[in-house]
Write a structure and sequence with these properties.
The chain has about 475 residues and is an alpha+beta fold. Helices cover about 55% and strands about 15% of the residues. The chain has a five-stranded antiparallel beta sheet, sandwiched between helices.
Amino acid sequence: MIFEPQGRLQRASLRARVTWLAAFCVAGAVALVSFGAYMIVRKSVYDALDEGLRQRANTVATGFKVTTPDEVLNYPAAFLAAGDVKMGLLQSNTGKIFYPRTSEPPPTIDEAWEVAEGDRTDYTWTDHKSETRVVAVHYGPENSGQAIVIAQSMVPQRTTLAKLSVVLLLIGGAGVLLAAIAGTAVARTGLRPVQRLTEATERVANTGDLTPIPVSGDDELARLTHSFNAMLGAVAESQERQRRLVADAGHELRTPLTSMRTNLELLLASERPNSPTLSQEDKTEIQSDVRAQIDELTTLIGDLVELAREDAPQVVHEPVDLVEVVERSLDRARRRASNVTFDVQLQPWTLLGDSSALERAVLNLLDNAVKFSPSGSAVRLSLRQVGDGSAVVEVADAGPGIADADLPHVFERFYRSSEARTLPGSGLGLAIVKQVAQRHGGTATAGRAPEGGALFTLRLPGRP
């Protein structure tokens, strides 16, 4: 039960929290200001009352000469009543107080008798029983044993202070009410972008609609909306890439699957009774075609899996020796290609990254160079520093090179130039190279080598 208000506040809407916060802040400020104003006015009122009483008492003590107590008894009480004042004369030797017959005696306490005896020069106090403020001033010579006591009602001052407290309370309540109204208006206006974000999030969750939200202003909420729109754009781009990947993969898979199905149906049909038989040479050729198509499908599916893995966001913090990565890729490329040689020049370089992904990217570049290199030619492979905090891996072949029309598209998924359509491959190898480079903060570019063939450059950050 102790934590119920806090839990209730946490369950409240953000708009209600802002409203309550504004109301509480204004209430606290109004309470502090009102309390301070009340205390200052209260002190000023009572200080003025005390000062007036002292002046009256000093005036009486210096200007009113009493020869006998009878003169006090016969003092006109109307004068005192006009000023709402009570007056009396204390005599310590008789222990009596003398005051006008038609008035009431002022209150007395022990300290007032000490003033009469000369132990104090004056003393001021409040008599709560009669609601009066009282002052006692020594009267006469030092050893006269007398004191003038004057009391004045505090009812007017307290009435004034009570009215002031009511006024401050009303003003404070009005301020709190206005603050709550203003807080509600500010919350409704200020949180409108948040409401639009909420509605957009619900729309995306329910319908998958990635339409950006209109942005107005340049405050924090506007920047939040810009960030949300950027996120929607990234999601839309990712979905579009996935759709293109699925469509392109389906297109690429359709050809080998159709060819494989035709060959298999032909083999099965030749085994049926009363069907034309195939020669052993034809069967061998069809079986070779099926194995080649299976290899092509295996390569294509492996590239698709690798491409999908590269699309997934990954945080890489593994120290990588790029020379070792390049050497492992080179060993695998040499085992696959026995008809070409490799001219290798490597300089030390390290970076933080994924060694397997980097090895796959370099191997793809080498396989691509081997595929287009004539038999007996050399593939140039170099790893060198470029002096701007990065190193480049260059792979150049002695093939026909890349046409100018194909250069902007060589790193696109499933893109294959007219010269490469008759060669084995999935059209995904260079796309994987580009994604690996981007994931490591680098770039992949294509151009013409001095030898006349293609030149692929993989630029990666790191240190020697």
